[in-house]
Design a protein that fits this description.
3 helices
Length: about 100
């Protein structure tokens, strides 16, 4: 009976070549676009998921065929998050200027 691969003390080995975890490029891209259009929180998820998935693709643990889609989704998530940050700073400055008037 083979041992438990998740048991303490066992070394993790990546899957053999040709046996990758499926990529989530479509999900990451969808979240990135929705982050720009609807809610920046979805952009944060796209940024984090995309970064993690790209790292796994480079390590040979995830299907690399979705690299471009995943990268595009991550970039959209970054744009959504940065735009939200800029908007928040502008809003704070506006509130401060109106309170001082």
């Amino acid at each position: 009976m083979p041992g438990n691969p998740y048991a303490a003390g066992t070394a993790y080995s990546p899957p053999p070549s040709g046996h990758y975890a499926p990529h989530r490029g479509g999900v990451v891209l969808t979240l990135g676009i929705l982050g720009i259009v609807l809610c920046f929180i979805l952009g944060i998820f796209a940024w984090v998921m995309g970064s993690d998935d790209l790292q796994k693709m480079r390590a040979g643990q995830m299907d690399p065929s979705g690299y471009g889609t995943t990268q595009a989704g991550m970039i959209c998530g970054m744009i959504a998050t940065i735009l939200a940050g800029i908007g928040f700073v502008v809003w704070i400055l506006l509130v401060i200027s109106l309170a001082a008037a």
